[in-house]
Amino acid sequence: MSKATSKFQVTIPKQVADQYGIKPGDDIEWVPTAETIRVVPRRGARPTLSMEERIAFFDAATERQRAPDQQRPGALITDQGRGWTRQDLYTPGQSG
Length: 96
Hints:
It is a single chain. By secondary structure, the protein is of the alpha+beta class. It is 29% helix and 10% strand. The protein is built from two helices and two strands; from the N terminus they run αββα. The chain has a two-stranded antiparallel sheet with strand order 1-2. The protein is elongated, with a radius of gyration of 24 Å.
């Protein structure tokens, strides 16, 4: 049994996904019927990517994720340019 999250997301049990050949990234169609809902995996040609293409997509996504982090207020600041390090804030051997 699955629960709907606060964002109305539902997890497909692995046994059901395996039985019907549902893989991550597959489209799922929700079909309302009289008193039930049918969950229908959409069948179609699944593009197969080479390892190099998959790595390229991953690298591009990683770069897209990093770019906003550099511009966002409150983003992690590196030691460069601020003139102090985190260790400078603490006296060694003393807690609290």
